[in-house]
Write a structure and sequence with these properties.
CATH superfamily of one domain: NAD(P)-binding Rossmann-like Domain
Number of helices: 13
Largest sheet: 7 strands, parallel
Organism: Oceanobacillus sojae
Order of helices and strands: EHEHEHEHEHEEHEEHEEHEHHHHH
GO molecular function: aldehyde dehydrogenase (NAD+) activity
Structural class: alpha/beta
Radius of gyration: 19 Å
Helix content: 40-55%
Protein name: Epimerase
Number of strands: 12
Strand content: 15-25%
CATH topology of one domain: Rossmann fold
Oligomer: single chain
CATH architecture of one domain: 3-Layer(aba) Sandwich
Length: 317
Amino acid sequence: MKKAIVLGATGGTGQVIVSELLNRGIEVIAFGRSQNKLEALLAEYNHHLSLTYKLGDIFDYQTIVDAAKDADVIFQCANVKYQEMAEKLMPLGESVMKAADALGKRIVIVDGIYVYGHQVAKGDENHPQNPHTKKGKLRVVFEQLIFSEKWKRAEALIVRLPDYYGPTSQNSYLQPTLDGVAAGKTSIFIGNLKTPREYVYLPDAAKMIVNIAEKDDSYGENWNIPGAGLISGKEIIRIARKVTGNQKAVIPLTKNVIRLVGLFDEFMREIVEIMYLTKEGFILSGEKYEKRIGAIPATPFQKGLEKTLQALMDKNN
């Protein structure tokens, strides 16, 4: 891979993919619809000679074709809001795959774990896909679209991440907690504080995703991107308070509270059905990655949270 394009380059996952590619000496085209955000991204890298950008609309496949024609691999990191998923997820998938197929390109699709539903077996790539939520069922149809036989020239793979965190994170479940603590405010925690859960540090995820993308035999498959183990909300808050010095309350939001808030907030209303993950957790197996790719990058939570919180505090100053 000599040149890649990152769709949704200014998002949380897109930014770490851009960084990882540049660190490997790979030319990067950052693709998005906001010129201001793309120019800010270039400025962050001091207008790195290997980083350029293209304006476009993820739902207009021709703009992707025009931007990606010189790239070896397309990284699809753009996403849709929870409350718009039913209307926009499939058109997004159709657009990116149509573009990849028209160009005969390899494409890496970044996705989550809703397709699995409740964990009933080892969390490897063969875990049964029995989602019990609207979002999970939609993600199964999305996967079928990505791997559809109608695409004759595109080569696709899907990487699946658990909940995540990191300096670039924007829309994770953990984000309101870390934002609030870093800002010295009272904050919230979505879910049960006692349940040990898996989180992946985004720079680690980027390393694994690019490693997978560079292997010729990775395509046509699902790949899990595991975190560095399990950690409870209580432990996250303990570390966050130690790093920031903020001892203000962190209020856990249970399913019933979120359902109540959802009467007035469309986003919170959409969270209710996937609250099972905050109560039960879901542990991804990295055995396939270790066997086919190598050792799993696993930044300890203490170090990852320190870097994340410091970045948030710097942004607030």
